[in-house]
Known about the structure:
Helix content: 25-40%
CATH class of the largest domain: Alpha Beta
Bound molecules: iron/sulfur cluster
Strand content: 15-25%
Oligomer: single chain
Strand order of the largest sheet: 6-9-10-11-12-13
CATH architecture of the largest domain: Alpha-Beta Horseshoe
Low-confidence stretches: 1-5
Shape: globular
Number of strands: 18
Mean pLDDT: 93
Structural class: alpha/beta
Amino acid sequence: MGAMQSCVSPKAALVTLGCPMNQVDSERIIGGLVSLGFEIVPEEEADIVVVNTCGFIEDAREESINTILSVAKLKETGTLKSLVVAGGLAERYRSDLESELTETDAVVGLKDRGRIPMLCRELLACGQTGKTGYHRVVTGPPHTAYLKIAEGCDNRCSYCAIPMIRGPYRSTPQAEILREAEELASAGVRELILIAQDTTNYGCDLDGCSLPGLLRRLSGIDAFKWIRLMYAHPAHFSDELIETIAALPHVIPYVDLPVQHISSKVLKRMGRATPPDSIYSLIDRLREKIEGVVLRTALIVGFPGETDEDFRELLDFISYVRFERLGAFVYSHEEGTSASALINSIPAKVARKRHETLMETQSQISAEFHHSLIGRELEMIIDTADDGNGVVIGRTYMDAPEIDGNLTGAGSVQEEDVFCRVRITGAGLYDLEGDIV
Length: 437
Ligand code: SF4
């Protein structure tokens, strides 16, 4: 009787961990569940929960396991009947999870994720529906969406487990990307964020396709006022791409360029193909050719063998480039990667101190940059409408959602407005404030 009742409108929940790549996978799974008759609810009310995990680094694995265990408790305290574990952790440690986490009912690797919606019906003994094909359901603010343009990665950064988890680089065919983009545009998306492990490598495995060509096609979709490019690996950043970003008004001048380090010795040990002078020259060209460009990077400190001199080079580099946005991580050994076999580990205390010094240097740069924005009028995308306190919260083109800061605009906008203009009146280290004009 219970199973029959829940089959009328079975209730499912998705819990997503990790990066935007995982968020897009979850949105596709939700689309599938909805088309197979599921109602999407909070996990406390669900018959079945899918935990979409990340297995990329130790911290992410720990978070994934803790989440699985806390969701599993709902079998005793809530309505939960079945628990599915999907995503990177499931791909990498499938048999361990199956044997050790007996609370889970199914462990589904990345390759089989398309099967998850139907599997959920089977686990609840709801049988087939005969429906196939489904659309993605965007879960964030309705005007912003990620568009995944490729799967996997062909680079072999020595510290990274992603190629092991997600496999070799496979560009999504352009026609498929454009179809999904049109759907997102019709659903009200105005900021499109292109993602992949390595976006600049797009088209390497397709005839006649490249990222500049794709950007030109996406720019032809009027609804997208902002097209943002994330994870632009420097090794594949062509001059044509620079010129394309500079020329297309809707491709915003925001470049996320993860360089990881600048010392040639460290870059070599990291397995990064771009030597320091090419990185410097690329950044000079980006600054020169793209008006108003904002650069973000990601760095690793404390990589095995990083000397004081290597670290000083890194500090000189960020002082020269003055990245407007920067994230830095302390290196940690990742099981199964070639870097984990390297000798000359940096003592944790030294690595933490270097991280602190780097972030202090960057804070000064960020503060000066933010201060220089005071008095300027900028366009803002509205993420959170005014809930009665006279302010709206959003971002300028200089800030990617979740990763960068926010702009709080005082004043009012029309309910249907997605963008407004704001004069900047105040600046903190990460966030901005202004008046709506
Ligand atoms: S580019 Fe390097 S760090 Fe990024 S996913 Fe590929 S191997 Fe990992």
